[in-house]
Amino acid sequence: MNAVAHPDARPDLDRPGVGAVLVSTWRVGTPERQRAAVEAIRKAWESREWPDLGLLSYSVLAGTDGDTLLHYSQWTEQDAYDAFVRTYRDDRNAEIDAAVPGIERVELRRYGAVHRSTARRATATGAPPGVVVIVEADFDAAAGGAGQREEWVDHVFAALDEDAVTRPASGGISGRFHLSVEGDRVLNYAEWESERAHADWLADDAPLSEAWRRVQHDPRLVGGRVKRYTPALSLSAGV
Question: Could you tell me the pTM of the whole model?
Answer without folding.
Answer: 0.94
